[in-house]
Design a protein that fits this description.
Elements: E1 11-15, E2 18-19, E3 23-24, H1 35-47, E4 57-61, H2 67-72, E5 78-79, H3 87-92, E6 94-95, E7 100-109, E8 120-125, H4 129-136, E9 144-149, H5 152-161, E10 167-171, H6 172-180, E11 188-190, E12 195-200, E13 203-204, H7 209-223, H8 226-236
Parallel strand pairs: 1-4, 1-5, 8-9, 8-10
Antiparallel strand pairs: 2-3, 5-13, 6-13, 7-10, 7-11, 7-12
């Protein structure tokens, strides 16, 4: 594929369905909202000089397992969600400057007894940075068996509904939001240990340098604007639209990398 996505009539952006507060769809029909969705809108308004000048944007549903393939295959031009910037991914794709700093946590049901000999049965996304962070933690303090699934939604469903799953590992903020919305939230606890610390970024193709450069320059401007402070409060402190709860995270928290 030649040329930049900036020069085509429609921008195709990948968003996830089940990763609040970054990208989620509270309705069955896919209409994503969230921090990363609004941030992408501010970035595009900056790139194209105004909201009115933004070309048509097609929101394409992606998952943790499909997003890279859809990007490399040209189905989407950019992925905006909660994708961690890693050395391995940088070999395959380009990233914007960091948009958020995060760690990984493990949620478990209170009173969970660790079965022998495999320990806690921990579900998470297969091949994810959460899995890598869990496996790299040599002094975690308990034995475990990792159960890999293809998406965060599948991990949440397994943890909520499968009696053979004791715990779930995921990015901390996404985990907090998923558990706050669970009917069984009162019986769920986060382990004290934090696994790793990494940054999210918008993911693009290596060959589209014009898009990467424009997005980075726009992020610099957006992060310095009053609109960005309001964005933090909306998605990390106030009640999340369609979900009925808020995360009540201080908008001045150090997880915001700007």
């Amino acid at each position: 594929m030649s040329g930049s996505a900036l020069d085509r009539g429609t921008l195709r952006i990948g968003f996830q369905r089940n990763t609040p507060p970054f990208s989620y769809s509270p309705t069955a029909e896919f209409h994503p909202i969230g921090y990363s969705v609004d941030l992408a809108q501010l970035v595009l308004a900056n790139v194209f000089r105004s909201v009115e000048m933004i070309p048509p944007v097609q929101a394409v549903e992606v998952t943790s397992s499909t997003r890279e393939g859809l990007l490399v295959g040209g189905v989407i031009d950019m992925e905006c969600g909660s994708t961690t910037i890693t050395e391995e991914r940088l070999l395959r794709n380009a990233f914007s400057r960091p948009i958020f700093r995060n760690s990984h946590r493990i949620a478990h049901r209170s009173g969970t007894n660790s079965p022998a000999p495999g320990g806690l049965r921990v579900v998470g996304i297969q091949g994810s940075t959460s899995e890598a962070a869990l496996r790299s933690q040599s002094d975690i303090g308990f034995e475990y068996t990792f159960i890999g699934v293809p998406s965060i939604g599948a991990a949440r469903n397994a943890f909520s509904n499968d009696q053979h799953v004791d715990a779930m590992v995921a990015d901390e903020v996404i985990l907090r939001s998923l558990l706050r919305g669970s009917a069984a939230a009162e019986d769920i606890r986060l382990m004290d240990v934090r696994l790793g610390e990494e940054c999210y970024g918008f993911m693009m193709r290596h060959g589209d340098g014009a898009l990467v450069h424009s997005v980075d320059a726009a992020l610099d401007d957006v992060f310095a604007s009053p609109d960005y402070l309001l964005l933090r409060k909306k998605w990390f402190h106030d009640e999340l639209p369609g979900l009925g709860f808020g995360l009540e995270i201080d908008p001045a928290d150090e997880m915001f990398v700007s």
